[in-house]
Amino acid sequence: ASASQDTDFGTELDQRLREQLRRAPYDKGSDARLKAILAAASGAGAGGSGAGDELDDDVDVAVGGGHGWINDRCPLSMKDVLELEQPVRDSLGYVYESASIREYLRSNPNGMKHPVAGVQHLLTLAELKPAAEVEREKRRRRLNGAAGGANAGKAHDFIDV
Asked: What InterPro entries does this protein map onto (predicted)?
């Protein structure tokens, strides 16, 4: 292409992709990345059982520092998630105080509009599960606090003012 001609990069890329696929057709059966995505989507973890081995259950805390839930406060009681007495989780990952969400859904057990503004989801009692990841995080924090009890709150001792 000369300086006075425009190049249609979209068309150029489409032509190159078609040519590449003609030479080496895509085989989804041999695509390891696709298999990993499908396994993750079906709930089959590294153990392959999908049953949620205890080791697999702790991965959400250990990997990437993620805590495994979306909200920091129960949308109904406004309590901090880590202060909930009986945390439950919906299928989207929102955590609630069990008593609060059950009261919210009591008037319509077949489902109600999700209590979080902007979330388009019909929430049902059947999808609520114990929020084991919240309980693990609470346990982890208790253990860390007990292990560091003698040193807790003494970070200022290391700062030279």
From this structure: Znf_RING/FYVE/PHD
Predicted TM-score of the model (pTM): 0.51
Amino acid at 67: H
Let me know: does 92 contact 116? Beta carbons within 8 Å: no
Residue burial 108-146, b: 16+ Cβ < 10 Å; e: rest: eeeebebbbeeeebebebeebeebbbbebbbeeeeeeee
Q: Phi and psi for 131 in degrees, rounded to 5?
A: -85, 75
R_g over Cα of the chain: 25
Structure tokens at 153: 């709150």
Beta bridge partners of 122: 113
**CA distances from residue 42 to 36, 50, 87, 122, 148 in whole angstroms, order as listed:** 10, 8, 24, 22, 39
pLDDT along the chain (161 residues), means of 10: 71 86 80 80 54 42 55 93 94 94 87 90 92 91 74 43 37
Cross-strand bridge partners of residue 113? 122
Q: Which of 60, 61, 90, 64 is nearest to 75 (CA)?
A: 90
Neighbours of 94 (CB within 10 A): 22
